[in-house]
Amino acid sequence: MKRIVVLTGAGVSAESGIQTFRDGDGLWNKYRFEDLASPQAWARDPELVQEFYNWRRKIVWEAEPNEGHIALVRLEQKYDVQIITQNVDDLHERAGSKNILHLHGEIKKARSTADPNLVYELDHWELKMGDKCEKGSQLRPHIVWFGEAVPMIEPAAEISSTADIFLVIGTSMVVYPAASLIIYAKQDIPKYYVDPKAFQVSGVSNLEVIKKAAGEGVPELVDTLLDQ
Ligand code: OAD
To answer: Are 95 and 73 in contact (CB under 8 A)?
Structure first.
C-alpha cells in the first residue's frame, strides 16, 4: 500500500469556523503571540493565557469537521495515510482519520507544569488557575508555545521521509520546523499544496500548487488520488 503523508495547518479548519493565524483576520494579526502563547506570557500573566486558550478551546469544542477533513478519511480506502497536523484542534480525529500526529499540541488536553509526562484529556472547555495535576502542580494548556521545543518533530520528519505522495493543506509554511517537513520527502515523489495562497516552495520539486479552499480542493484531489 502506498503511503500518503499529509501536512495540515490552520487553513484546513478555517471552514469549520476556527480562525487562522496570519490571514486578514488571523489571530496573530490581532494579538501579539508573545503576550499569549509563550513561556514568558505564562510566567507573567497565566490568567490571561488561560483565558485565551479557554476562548479558543470553546470554539474548537463547538466546531465540526468540514469537507476537507472528511475527504482525507476517504483516502484510507486505498492508501496508508499519515496526517501530521500543526493544528491543536481534534477535527481530523472527529472526522475519522486514523493516524494523526500533533506537532504543536492538543487544545483539549492539559499538562502538568511540574511533569510534562502528565497529560490529561479535558472533559470541558474551561481550564482554570487552581486546576492541578495529581502531584499538586498547576495545569497548563497542552500546547507547544513559541520558544519551546517541538518534541514530535523527529517522528514527523521520519514519517515524511517515507512518503510516496506528500500533501500540504492550509498552511502558510512560515513556521519552522513544521515547514521544513516537505524537505524530508523524497525529491521524486508527487507533492500537492492546497491553499488559496499556495505558492511554489523553493527547493521542492514535483509540487503541484492548487489554489483552492480545503473544502473544495481536498475532495477533488482525493477523488483524483483514489482514481489513480
Ligand atoms: P497560518 O495562519 O500561518 O496560515 C493559514 C493558511 O491557511 C494560509 O496560507 C491561508 O491562505 C490558508 N487558508 C485560509 N483559509 C483556507 C481554506 N479555507 N482552505 C485552505 N487553506 C486556507 O496557519 P499555520 O500555517 O497553520 O502554532 O500556522 C502554523 C503555526 O503558527 C500554527 O500551528 C500555530 C501558529 O502560531 C502554534 O500554535 C504553536
So the answer is: yes
